[in-house]
Amino acid sequence: MAKKKDTRSVTAKIRGVHEAFKTPTTKQWTRYVEKARNNKMSVGKRELLQTTCVSHKADEIRLILNKSPAAIGPLTEGVEELAGGDVESSITEEGTVLSSVNGSEFKFASPEIDVWESFQDKIQVDGSRLFEELMNLLASLCDDADDMRAAIAKSPGAANVIFDDVSELAGTGVSVVVKKG
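The chain above was modelled as a monomer; its predicted structure follows.
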């Protein structure tokens, strides 16, 4: 069976020049997420656009963006949306996360304390492996880890959407009120 070509793209016109950007690979997305985590968001955005641009070489798009720096934000938002693919995720009453990534359905269990703490420890020690550890966490909670990894490889931003629900399920959405005196 022939591999289906990904035809999704982000297009824009900057100073009269047409630009096109493709879905980032897992490697490109991982690098972007790592830059963001290390407070280098501006650099991460530029690199993401340079590596996903299909209408110009990296050096050419860099020069275009240098002259139109305000275009970086909206272009990056478009590539981020593209990276998410067609993803839906929700928390069920049974305490699981149901997610759909580009038509494939997955069920994620709520993380137990040992799994959650291990994940937190790993990303604190080596933040450069955030996306890898995020994928390992999701795989450990998913009913079909191999298919989930394959689906997210095509839309790496979907992992962040699913993680938001998994982390809420784990308790990050808890509201705390401290009253002094």
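The longest strand covers residues 10-14.
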